[in-house]
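Table 4 source record.
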Amino acid sequence: MTVDREQVLRTAAALLSRKATATMDEVARAAGIGRATLHRHFAGRDALVKALEALGIQEFEAAIDAARFDDGTAEEALRRLIAGLEPVAGLLAFLVTENQLFEGDQMNEGWDRLDARVAALFRRGQERGEFRIDLTPVWLTEALYGLIGTCAWAVQDGRVAGKDFQYMITELLLGGARRSVER
């Protein structure tokens, strides 16, 4: 029997985004394979998480490309990005909480590349008067990541309706939490 490595990764991503502490045995069971088969593809949890990181970066990059940052306004591109990230939000939420990915000198340069692209979108929006200029593009990027991860968990736990994912993230990020006072 041939094992589809990418399908195993996607199954692991789905499981770990719901249960970050899942064991390799649980991952193997969820993927419908034996633990030995899983270990032939991924020597241990660290190797599995590194492979998930590569998948997450690949999916994030594809969402950025599909968002066509240079087409239309920065707000329109941001909305397209959030829509494109929705299917992989759980994986990204899991990855940003995996300390092993962000410790020491081993950090994947893919994250820096993605951060730079998203920050550039916010900077373009600021330069064109679309976004607030009192918050740095780096902070807006981090806030976006935080909202995506938090919303993914809230949807997963049933505290928030999945159909509201894009709306809630976009509106809170762009509008802030401050209520407008009509005069």
